[in-house]
Amino acid sequence: MRILVIEDNVRIGELIAQGLHERGFACDVATNLAAAEDALLAAQFDVVVLDLGLPDGDGVSWLRARNPGTQPPTIILTARDSLEDRIGGLDAGADDYLPKPFAMDELAARIRAVLRRPGARQQRIIEVGDIAFDPAALTLSVKGHRIETTRRELSLAELLMRKAGQVVRRQLIEEALYAFDEPVTPNAIEAVVSRLRRKLEENGAGNALHTVRGVGYLLSEV
């Protein structure tokens, strides 16, 4: 799961990114609205965490002007804690509103809650043959048996399952699994694919994950 944090305080943004990374999320930080727009054009995010007092505009006005059809679920995270501010943020299109100071565990819980809402991530269970991914519970299973996965293995499985039968290019996988500032070693994607393939095979879903040399990867029914 990939999160975009829009926060002009660099130190706070770094702490939020670190805390979310420790709780299983890939996280990018934009320090202003222009950088946020660029990030949203460059990659697909599952949730936006939005501060309001930003150098190049107000978060509420920006959110209100965004196309609801393309805006990821958004949680406002701000020092503005009056009832009027909360109502204004929610009416502008925010899915949740969390005042600062906040507990990192609560922010992570609110992100998970937003992702569980109907329509936020096409919540029905995705099935490809005997493999099933539950977006609400964030679990992967084969023939009903849950597979223990890392965050990146789970994100890879979700991406491939949502595009089952199609070749998913390596660049798209890299964008989905890693934040912009995370180093990606030459064999990083291959290593994640290899681990996921092994776990699928060990649980009875052999020959489901295919390598298309020079292009990417494909998940198919077996």
Structure description:
The protein is α/β, with parallel strands linked by helices. The protein folds into 2 domains: 2-116, Response regulator (Rossmann fold, 3-Layer(aba) Sandwich), CATH 3.40.50; 126-219, Winged helix-like DNA-binding domain superfamily/Winged helix DNA-binding domain (Arc Repressor Mutant, subunit A, Orthogonal Bundle). The protein is 39% helix and 23% strand. The protein contains 8 helices and 14 strands. Strands 2-1-3-6-7 form a 5-stranded parallel beta sheet, sandwiched between helices. The model has no long low-confidence stretch (mean pLDDT 90).
Looking at CATH, the homologous superfamily of the largest domain is: Response regulator
* Number of helices, where a helix is a run of at least 4 consecutive DSSP H or I residues: 8
Strand content: 15-25%
Mean pLDDT: 90
**Major β-sheet profile:** 5 strands, parallel
Pick out the low-confidence regions: none
Please summarize what this structure is:
This protein is an alpha/beta fold.
List keywords for this structure.
about 25% strand, Arc Repressor Mutant, subunit A, about 220 residues, 2 domains, alpha/beta, 8 helices
Topology of this structure?
Blueprint: E1 2-6, H1 10-22, E2 26-30, H2 33-42, E3 47-50, E4 53-54, E5 57-58, H3 59-65, E6 74-78, H4 83-91, E7 96-99, H5 104-116, E8 126-128, E9 131-134, E10 139-142, E11 145-147, H6 151-162, E12 168-169, H7 170-177, H8 188-202, E13 209-212, E14 216-219
Parallel strand pairs: 1-2, 1-3, 3-6, 6-7
Antiparallel strand pairs: 4-5, 8-9, 9-10, 10-11, 12-14, 13-14
Helix pairs in contact: 6-8
